[in-house]
Design a protein that fits this description.
By secondary structure, the chain is mainly α. 43% of the residues lie in helices and 0% in strands. The longest helix has 35 residues. It holds the Pfam family DUF4190.
Length: 152
């Protein structure tokens, strides 16, 4: 084809047979400004009509409301001497034994709590006294053996 003839199918012919044609650059689409959506007009509803009802008379309750009671009774207070017996038995065993016996007597008479504490104080106190007795007997025995060994 020659240069004077119009292109076939709207595409330009390459001028050099070795050179390929480049596609035309894409054009940016033209957008218009966004349109506001059109909503249908809101329908006006009539005001609700209030119906007149007769007031019903309710009977008074037969029994007054009583507050619910707890499911269990509160625990009785713990005897103070029972606590002293348990704590004292670790430091001075005789305090645990004496306070433990007094606490058990008070608990039996008044119904207070802490019987287990008093018994634990008694047991630990008696075990402590037994350990001290064994230690003293052991030292007396060792001292007696040492004296008899040096007496020749």
């Amino acid at each position: 084809m020659s240069q004077n003839q119009p292109p076939v199918n709207g595409a330009p012919e390459p001028q050099d047979p070795g050179q390929a044609t480049q596609p035309p650059a894409p054009q940016a689409p033209q957008y218009s400004a966004p349109q506001q959506p059109q909503y249908p007009a809101q329908q006006q509803y009539p005001a609700p009509q209030q119906q007149q009802y007769a007031q019903q008379q309710y009977a008074q309750p037969q029994q007054p409301y009583v507050a619910a009671q707890p499911a269990y009774a509160p625990a009785p207070p713990t005897n103070t001497l029972a606590i002293i017996a348990l704590v004292g038995a670790f430091f001075i065993s005789l305090v645990g034994v004496i306070c433990g016996h007094i606490a058990l007597k008070q608990i039996a008479r008044s119904g207070e709590g802490g019987r287990g504490l008093a018994l634990a104080g008694l047991i630990i106190g008696y075990v402590g006294i037994a350990v001290w007795v064994i230690i003293i007997v052991f030292y007396v025995f060792i001292i007696g053996v040492a004296i008899s060994a040096n007496s020749y």
